[in-house]
C-alpha cells in the first residue's frame, strides 16, 4: 500500500499490515517542566530509568534549557552529571534534548564557536537526538547548531515552531521544513508548544511535508494538551504519515503538559498503526510516577482543565499568567482585558512572531507597558532588540514606525544579518570568567554551564559539593491544599501564594506579618 | 456527496460543504454526577439556563436516576419542580433524560403500568428526549418504556450499553440497534459509560449501524473520558457518520466525566463537520461553571488523570473504588489483586453482562464475597436474581453450576421470561403507601417519587417544606483538601493555603496564628 493512500483507507478495511509509530517519552524533561515547574530531582528519576530504557521508546527526552537551569538553580545538581547518569542507566534508548538554536540553553545568541563546543560536549556526554528550534523560525538561527550536530554523527531534528497568524500557512511551514532538510536535518518536528494545532491542520501539515519532501522524510509531532484537542491532532497526524509522536506518562500529563503515553498507545489499537511499547512496563512506570507526583504537590500546575480560549487569543496560558502578575505588581489587575486586546497589535507590529519563549515574554511585557504607560512610550530592551532585528527575521515586516521609535531609544542600528554574525569569538573570555569562580573545576562542562547561566552558575559552583537537593516532600509533611484553588483557578481570583503579607489581629492589635510556610 | 464516502475524503480536499454535528450538553446531569457526586443544586444551575438554552445545543441532558435521588436525598429539592424550572427557563432546547428501561429511575423492575405513568408524567412535565437503556442490553427490558415514550410523541432514543468481552461484537451491537429501531426508537445511542470505546471500534460501530439500518438512522455517541482516548473516538464516530455527540462544559469534564464541549467544537474546525454552538455563550458558560465548581470542592472526584488499565481489566473506575471500600470494611484491603482477578471469572459465570449500574455492583460485590468467604459460599440476593434470570437475559449462557448454587440458596425458580411479566399491577398499592406518608401531597408525581425511592422519599416528603439546601460552600469556608488529592500551584515557593496555622515570631515571641487570606 502506498503511504499516501493510508489516511484514505484506514477506516475502510481490516488492516493488512500495521505501521509502527515511534514514541518519544517526555516525562524526564518537558512533562515535569510543564506540570511540575521542572523540579523533579535525578534521585526520583533513577528508579524509572530501567523501565524507560526497556519499554521500547524511540527516544527519551531528558535534557533542555529549563531542566539545566533548574538543576543548578534549585536542585544543586550538575546537569552534565545528570546526563551521564541517564546515559549509563539507559544504554538502549536514544536520549533526546531540546536546543534553542543559536541560543543553546540560554536567552541570548552565542557565538558559533560556543555553539560548536556545546553540541560536541552534549553529544559526547550522551545526547543522541538534538531537537533544534528558533522562536522566530529564522533558519539562520538554526543552521550552525544543525551543522554541529551533524558533525558529531548524531540525529539533528529541525523543529518548526507552530503558530497561527494571518501570515502563517501550511505552505510556509512546509517551505521551512524543506529548508531544514536542506541544512542537513535528519528529521522534522512540528513543535506546538501552545496546543494550537487542530486535527485538520495537523493532517494537512504532515501530509504537506511528506508530499513536498518525500514520504521517506521522517516527521515527528510534539503537541501540548492545553486546549484538549491535540490527542485527536496526533491521530490525524499519524493518519497523514507522521512517524513519531511525543507523549508523557499520565501521572505528569494533560493540562499545560502533553497527551498521556498510555492513551496514545490505546487509541491506535485496531487501526493500521501501532506502537511497540511494552504495556507492562508502561503500567509499572505509571504506578511509579504516581508515587512521585504527590511529593511535588507544591509545584504542580493548577491547570487541569482545558483552555480553548487560546484558539481565539493565540496567547498561551503561561503568558497570560505572566502578564497578570505584571499587572498586579503595578496595581492594575483590572486592565487585563486591555492588555489582551493589545497583544495581537504588538505581535502584528513585531511581524507576527510565534509566541514562544522568549518572544511570548517580549511581546506580552510590551503589551503591558503600552497599556500602562502609553503606546510605545516605554520599550523594554528586548523589544527594542526584537524590532531592530537582533533576534532575527520575523515572518512579516515589522512596523517601520515602531522600528523608528525603537531605534530612537537605542544606540543600536537596525540589522538584517544573522544576529550571531555580530558576535566575536567569546570562548576564551567565558573560560577565563568561569575559572575565576570559586568551585569551578576548570572543565569545558563548567565553562558551558557558566556560559548558559552566568547569573546562576557562580552560586551553583560554590555549593556543588553539598550535593543534590531533593525538593520532593512526603505528602503528609506538606501544607494542606487550598480549598477551591486546586483544579480550576482560571476564575480570576488566582491562588494564594507565598510569601504573603497578612494583617494579623492579635490581642486586639493588627500587625502586618509576612509569612512563608515552613 | 454520498454519506458513506465521507470518512474517505474528509482529509483529502477542502471541504465543499459541512455537515452539522449536534451536541448534547451533559453538565446538568451526567457531568456533575460523574465528577461532583451529583450535588449541584438547582439554584446553581438556574443562572446558566438562558445561555444553555440559546447556545444551540440539540439537547440538554438534565434529569436521571442519580440526579432525582440526589434531589430528595441531599438537596431537599423536588425533582419534578426542578424539571418544571428547566422547562420554563429553557423553552427552545430539547430537555433530555436517562431512563433505565423497566427500572425507570430505581433499582428494581417496575410493572408496566408504573412505567407508562412515569413516562407520561415526565413528558408532560418537560422531557423531550428519553434515552432508554438496560444494563444487560435485554431488549425486553426496554420495549415497554420505548412504546410509552412513542405514545407521548416525544423522542425515544434506544441506547446500547457498550462493553468489551469475548462475546460482544460490532455485529451483535448492530443487531441490537436494529431491534431498538424495530421497537420504534427514533434514534440510537452508543452509550460507553466506562470509556472503553476506542477510535477504531467507534468508527466501525457507527458505520455498521448506518450500513445496516440506513444512513438516515440517527446515531448519537455518549462516551466518558476516563481512559483518555475517547475524544479521538468521537472524531472517528463523526467521520463514520454519527449525527450527535455528548459533551460537558470543561469545568465539569474529564477524569471520570466526559470530553469538554469546547474541545469537541474546536476539534472540528477546518474539517467538513461543524457544530452550531455559539462560542461566546459557551465561553460565558465555562466562566460561570468555573465559579460554581470550587463551591463543591469536597464532592469533587480526585481522579483527574487517565486510567487505561480499564482496557485490560474492563472494570470501570467507580467499581474498583466500591470494591476497595468493601475490602477495607472487612479489613482485607490487601486482597484487591485477588478480587481483580476474580471479577472476570464472576462476569463470565454471569454470562458476560456489561459492567454498568447495577450489574457492575452485583458482579463486583460477588467477587469480593468469593475472595473473602470462598467461591460462591455466600451469594448476595442480587447475584442470585442475576443468575436466575430476574434481571433479564445476558449475552452469554450463565454457568449452570452457579445457577444451581443460586437456586439452592433461594426459594425462587430460574426464569427466562421478561422479568416484568412476573409483576402484578402495583400502582394502587404504591399510591396508597405514598399517601400515608406525612408531607405527601397526593399527586402522581409524589407517588412516582415514592415508587422510585421508597427508602428516601418519606424523609423528603416530611422535610420538603423547609425548601432546597445548597451544599455548595464559599471556598474559604471549606475544610482544606487532603494533600495529594488535587494539584495545586506552580510558582515553586509553596502555596499558602487557607486556613493555615502558622508559628509567627513577633518581637521574639512565637505565637500560633491561624490565618485566612482576606
**Multimeric state of these chains?**
homodimer
Class from secondary-structure proportions of chain A:
alpha/beta
Largest interface in this structure: A-B, 89 and 87 residues
pLDDT < 50 runs, ≥5 residues of chain A: 1-13, 480-505, 512-518
Reading side by side through the largest sheet of chain A, how are the strands ordered? 2-3-4-5-6-7-8-9
Record field, number of beta strands of chain A: 12
Strand content of chain A: 5-15%
- Beginning-to-end CA distance, first to last residue of chain A: 63 Å
Q: Helical segment tally of chain A?
A: 21
Helix content of chain A: 40-55%
Radius of gyration of chain A: 23 Å
Q: On the 0-100 scale, what is the average pLDDT of chain A?
A: 89
Shape of chain A: globular
Verbal overview:
The first copy, chain A, has 518 residues and is an alpha/beta fold. Chain A is 42% helix and 11% strand. Chain A has 21 helices and 12 strands. Chain A has helices at 6-9, 27-35, 42-54, 65-73, 79-89, 112-125, 143-152, 170-182, 199-213, 230-240, 261-267, 279-292, 309-313, 317-329, 336-349, 359-373, 381-388, 400-408, 427-435, 444-452, 457-463, and strands at 19-20, 22-25, 59-63, 94-99, 129-132, 155-161, 187-192, 219-223, 244-247, 273-274, 500-506, 509-515. Chain A has an 8-stranded parallel barrel, surrounded by 7 helices. A two-stranded parallel ribbon of chain A has the order 1-10. Chain A has a two-stranded antiparallel ribbon with strand order 11-12. The longest helix of chain A has 15 residues, at 199-213. The first copy, chain A, is globular, with a radius of gyration of 23 Å. Chain A starts with 5 loop residues before the first helix and ends with a strand. The model of chain A is unreliable at 1-13, 480-505 and 512-518 (pLDDT under 50). The interface between A and B is large, with 89 and 87 residues.
Amino acid at each position: 500500500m502506498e503511504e499516501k493512500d493510508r489516511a484514505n483507507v484506514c477506516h475502510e478495511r481490516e488492516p493488512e499490515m500495521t505501521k509502527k509509530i515511534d514514541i518519544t517519552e517526555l516525562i524526564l524533561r518537558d512533562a515535569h517542566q510543564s506540570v511540575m515547574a521542572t523540579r523533579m530531582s535525578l534521585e526520583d528519576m533513577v528508579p524509572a530509568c530501567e523501565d524507560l530504557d526497556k519499554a521500547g521508546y524511540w527516544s527519551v527526552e531528558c535534557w533542555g534549557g529549563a531542566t539545566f537551569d533548574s538543576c543548578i538553580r534549585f536542585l544543586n545538581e550538575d546537569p552534565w552529571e545528570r546526563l551521564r547518569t541517564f546515559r549509563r542507566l539507559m544504554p538502549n534508548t536514544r536520549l533526546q534534548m531540546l536546543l534553542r538554536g543559536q541560543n543553546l540553553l540560554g536567552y541570548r545568541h552565542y557565538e558559533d564557536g560556543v555553539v560548536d563546543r556545546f553540541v560536541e560536549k552534549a553529544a559526547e556526554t550522551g545526547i543522541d537526538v538534538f531537537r533544534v528550534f528558533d522562536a522566530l523560525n529564522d533558519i539562520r538561527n538554526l543552521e550552525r547548531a544543525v551543522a554541529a550536530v551533524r558533525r558529531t554523527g548524531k540525529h539533528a531534528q529541525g523543529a518548526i515552531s507552530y503558530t497561527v497568524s494571518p501570515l502563517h500557512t501550511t505552505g510556509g511551514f512546509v517551505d521551512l521544513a524543506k529548508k531544514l532538510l536542506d541544512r542537513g536535518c535528519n528529521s522534522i518536528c512540528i513543535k506546538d508548544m501552545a496546543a494550537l494545532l487542530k486535527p485538520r491542520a495537523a493532517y494537512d501539515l504532515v501530509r504537506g511535508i511528506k508530499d513536498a519532501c518525500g514520504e521517506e522524510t521522517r516527521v515527528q509531532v510534539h503537541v501540548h494538551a492545553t486546549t484538549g484537542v491535540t490527542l485527536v491532532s496526533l491521530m490525524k497526524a499519524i493518519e497523514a504519515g507522521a512517524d513519531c509522536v511525543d507523549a508523557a506518562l499520565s501521572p505528569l500529563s494533560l493540562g499545560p503538559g502533553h497527551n498521556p503515553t498510555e492513551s496514545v498507545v490505546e487509541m491506535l489499537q485496531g487501526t493500521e498503526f501501532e506502537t511497540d511499547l511494552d504495556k507492562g512496563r508502561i503500567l509499572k512506570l505509571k504506578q511509579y510516577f504516581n508515587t512521585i507526583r504527590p511529593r511535588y504537590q507544591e509545584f504542580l500546575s493548577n491547570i487541569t482543565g482545558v483552555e480553548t480560549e487560546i484558539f481565539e487569543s493565540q496567547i498561551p496560558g503561561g503568558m497570560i499568567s505572566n502578564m497578570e502578575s505584571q499587572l498586579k505588581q503595578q496595581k492594575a489587575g483590572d486592565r487585563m482585558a486591555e492588555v489582551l486586546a493589545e497583544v495581537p497589535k504588538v505581535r502584528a507590529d513585531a511581524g507576527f512572531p510565534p509566541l514562544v519563549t522568549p518572544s511570548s515574554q517580549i511581546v506580552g511585557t510590551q503589551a503591558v507597558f503600552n497599556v500602562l504607560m502609553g503606546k510605545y512610550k516605554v520599550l523594554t530592551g528586548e523589544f527594542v532588540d526584537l524590532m531592530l532585528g537582533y533576534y532575527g527575521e520575523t515572518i512579516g515586516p515589522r512596523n517601520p514606525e515602531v522600528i523608528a521609535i525603537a531605534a530612537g531609544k537605542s544606540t543600536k542600528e537596525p540589522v538584517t544579518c544573522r544576529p550571531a554574525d555580530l558576535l566575536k569569538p567569546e570562548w576564551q573570555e567565558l573560560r577565563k570568567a568561569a575559572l575565576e569562580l570559586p568551585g569551578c573545576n576548570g572543565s569545558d562542562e563548567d565553562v558551558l554551564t557558566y556560559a548558559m547561566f552566568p547569573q546562576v552558575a557562580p552560586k551553583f559552583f560554590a555549593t556543588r559539593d553539598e550535593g543534590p537537593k531533593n525538593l520532593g516532600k512526603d505528602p503528609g509533611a506538606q501544607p494542606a491544599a487550598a480549598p477551591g484553588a486546586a483544579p480550576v483557578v482560571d476564575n480570576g481570583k488566582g491562588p494564594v501564594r507565598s510569601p504573603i503579607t497578612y494583617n494579623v489581629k492579635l490581642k486586639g492589635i493588627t500587625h502586618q506579618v509576612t509569612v512563608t510556610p515552613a
